[in-house]
Specification:
Elements (H helix, E strand, L loop, with lengths): L9 H24 L28 H25 L1 H29 L10 H9 L2
Helix pairs in contact: 2-3
Amino acid sequence: MSVTHPIIFQPFLIYAGIVFVLAAIMIGLSWTLGERHKEKLTDEPYESGISPTGNARLRFSSHFYLIAIFFVIFDLDAVFILAWAVSFRELGLPGYLGIVVFIGILLAVLVYEIGIGSLDFGPQGRKILKYKNRLGK
């Protein structure tokens, strides 16, 4: 004998209705009570109260993008390490050895990046370009 339970959507519908009503009230109040003014710099990007100068389309060195990629990689690795830290008791010795290898690889990559000068923006920061030229890229 199978017993089926009816799915009750009423609490969800009530919650969704309350959310939509509150959102509509907040938007309506901000539109009603908000300031309306049209000044010279109203439609300009915000520059901390300073009138913007020049063009925002500047050329950046590829080193900036390389640093951004390194940041994303190491930030993502921090997420993996945090997930390991949450469950390290359940993982035991194999989990510990796995994270040691993982962190070892991260340290090796960091030493490699420092070695080729990819994190150097000083006057000697051209080492990475020399290294790329040696590889024929």
